[in-house]
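Protocol step 4 of 5: obtain the predicted structure for the target chain.
Materials: sequence only (see below). No template structures provided, no constraints applied. The aim of this step is simply to have a reference model before the mutagenesis design in step 5. Sequence pasted as it appears in the construct record:
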Amino acid sequence: QVQLVESGGGLVQAGGSLRLSCAASGRTFSSYDLGWFRQAPGKDREFVAVISRSGANTRYTDSVKGRFTISRDNAKNTVYLQMNSLKSEDTAVYYCAAGGGSFFCSDWTCYSAFGQGTQVTVSS
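Step 4 output (structure tokens):
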């Protein structure tokens, strides 16, 4: 089972940028599709982005397309989420997730491991 630890969250003004990182333990990192989800207070956990095992394919929810970029470095066992042009509605706890064969699934139940989450707060 892979273990995930997120970092990079914080407080930023609207229009600013943040880069989230998620470090994974285990020797099977490259066998997982890796995703980012977020959860705002009082709302369900929401799919944000996913990257395939090789890193060749990515998919995003419509609200972040053109603003967020997911990437991975299999040599460093790390997945990233670069967030630009942040909006107040991006405020949430962000979780990275790992799953086998999860690339086309936007439901968090398709993923087998989650990190503890990192808070992102965007002030308007």
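Step 4 remarks: The first strand starts at residue 3 and ends at 7. The radius of gyration is 13 Å.
Proceed to step 5.
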